[in-house]
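quick one before i forget lol
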Amino acid sequence: MPEPSWFDLQWLAFPLLGLIAGVLAGLLGIGGGIVLVAALVALLPLFGVPAEAVMHVALATSLASIIVTASASANAHRKRGSVLWPTLAWLAPGLVLGGLVGGRVAVHLPGGTLAALVGIFCLLMALRMAWPGSGSDAAPGAAVSTPAHALAPRGAWMSAAGAGIGAVSALVGIGGGSLTVPLLLARGVAMVRAVGTSSACGVVIGLASATAYALGAPPEVAAGTVGSAAAALPGGVVGFVHVPAALGIGLGALVAAPWGVRLAHRISGRALALAFAAMLAAVGLALLLR
């Protein structure tokens, strides 16, 4: 299908998708990544992305947009004091390493394999978040009256966990919230602080992973073609990152992320976890059955 002109109203799909991603980023701390991947798989063929590259471009573009989406969410949470900076400092080195390695591996995997990995991952995380006693029963503000530095998990083991979170996130195109949030909940962190810290982690993951997808793509992709038939990639694609789509999504997310943050501070931790689980299950099934 030919790529729409720059003045085509179809381009509004990306800012609208960003509005949804922004609310989810603020509400659930996930950067909207899982929803973005599923939506981009459906949208990108309309913008000239060949079938052979759709999954890779969807993952890479999701990760690139998460840089903006998660930044907006993290800033809104920062203003409310719900980002654990000491924990982020320990997680960040591992997140960077894992994101770079995971992205490098992903660019060489078949699209069908990546779709299956994302779908299975979503279903496993949905079960984890919905399971009673998973640590998500606390209300968002349950521990906010306690100084953040007293609750922040620290240590080299957090950096090791960050490497795993970064690698998996790069492979499935997410900001890592579905891994970071349960990890922090298990360490006794209140839900709203787990969400806020996860949003900040998403910025780190997005930067490292999107860089790997943009600069580590195979030579033929860097030259603007993909697949055995050398199908042409549309303009604005760097490596596997669809830059116009990522910017459009980011613009919408900047507007909507504070809305999600306000909701996160008003809804119970258990309700947040169940909403998270329902979304994960729906997306996982959609990807496995596509």
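fyi Strands lie at 225-226, 231-232, 237-238, 241-242.
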